[in-house]
Amino acid sequence: MWRGNSFSFVENDIKYTPSEVVELLVSLIKPQSGMRIYDPTAGSGGMLVQTRNYLARNGGNPANLSLFGQEMNLNTWAICKMNMFLHGVYSADIRKGDTLGSPQHTQAGELMTFDRVIANPPFSLKKWGKEEADNDAYGRFPYGTPPKDSGDLAFVQHMIASLNDEGVMGVVMPHGVLFRGSSEKAIRQGILQDDLLEAVIGLPAGLFYGTGIPASLLIINKNKRAARLRKVLFINAELEYAEGKNQNTLRAQDIAKIVQTFDDYAEVKRYSKVVTIAEIAENDYNLNIRRYADTSPPPEIFDVRAILHGGIPVREVESDYIREEILGDFDVSLVFAQRDSDYFEFKPEIDSKEKIRELAGEADAQVITQLERWWDKYQVSLKDLNAQVAEAESLMQSFLQELGYE
């Protein structure tokens, strides 16, 4: 497709990595002028191009990056070479071949190393070459080799081996690598014990073409700053996206929130958590994001007194979750009257859900839904129901008597 006076072969990249995910990943690893950038599964070169775009957006010289990549598919390799040329990148070192089986960026029998490594390898690649990797000439797999039908952590270890001593990498991974057992657990354990993992970021489902499964990002840093040593930041961004008919997307504000949370290494309720490696070890080196940063709401409150006698519990209305995630700044006095210090009740004029919607004005849909839920849950108490049943039984008995039945 055309972009200004040049055109970019983005279709092949979009098939694998949506542009906003690439933008996010590049913003997390923050390439800087003079750096060497490497993508071991380069595709058509979109991630490498985005590193230049990032530099340009942040006042750097995009020409002051050295780009390296390897791509196994011959046709895709050719497109990548042309894409580099069309973006004015004439010195990019893009090579053909199987990165795991035959890495091409070597020097004097050793892997070349880079300042930044970025990739979206094929998920759970089967027949990736475990037998050869067990005797790898480059020593790329110090934590062991993953199963023969799941090459995810082989790519991760290749990327780690391709980082220099101050290097940072970002990689897209399926969630399975975070908790699968056996040899993959041993690899996670080794990476954590060497204090290389800086962050684990969970993305929403439905971002990637052709699959609805959610993905995760791993940020690995060989030179973590002192305040981040022996810690890992978990970010759960699964709920923050724009829903699309066929595919969901990350909005600018979603990307900005993830990047800001990572930059600040901040804890945000129901979104992010800083966890010590000691705690992860206690959890058997499980990196399941929800274990540490859970977005699910707390258990719903069921107030027995309110169910029996009516009224809406103040503690439920004013709970942190209801206030922060649902009601926001909605003024509950529009629909509730204070019955006593512990309970609200619906205003006398409210005799139906329609009246709730009328008095709530322009409240958000989620506010209306919650108010209607309280109506269903508490408006008619068990005491009232018992009275109604007793009244109905009495009425039925009188009808039967009138008809001559005793």
Automatic annotation (TrEMBL):
<dbReference type="InterPro" id="IPR029063">
    <property type="entry name" value="SAM-dependent_MTases_sf"/>
</dbReference>
<dbReference type="Pfam" id="PF02384">
    <property type="entry name" value="N6_Mtase"/>
</dbReference>
<keyword id="KW-0489">Methyltransferase</keyword>
<keyword id="KW-1133">Transmembrane helix</keyword>
<protein>
    <recommendedName>
        <fullName>site-specific DNA-methyltransferase (adenine-specific)</fullName>
        <ecNumber>2.1.1.72</ecNumber>
    </recommendedName>
</protein>
<dbReference type="GO" id="GO:0032259">
    <property type="term" value="P:methylation"/>
</dbReference>
<keyword id="KW-0680">Restriction system</keyword>
<dbReference type="GO" id="GO:0008168">
    <property type="term" value="F:methyltransferase activity"/>
</dbReference>
<feature type="transmembrane region" description="Helical">
    <location>
        <begin position="199"/>
        <end position="220"/>
    </location>
</feature>
<comment type="similarity">
    <text>Belongs to the N(4)/N(6)-methyltransferase family.</text>
</comment>
<keyword id="KW-0812">Transmembrane</keyword>
<keyword id="KW-0949">S-adenosyl-L-methionine</keyword>
<feature type="domain" description="DNA methylase adenine-specific">
    <location>
        <begin position="16"/>
        <end position="296"/>
    </location>
</feature>
<dbReference type="InterPro" id="IPR003356">
    <property type="entry name" value="DNA_methylase_A-5"/>
</dbReference>
<dbReference type="InterPro" id="IPR051537">
    <property type="entry name" value="DNA_Adenine_Mtase"/>
</dbReference>
<keyword id="KW-0472">Membrane</keyword>
<keyword id="KW-0808">Transferase</keyword>
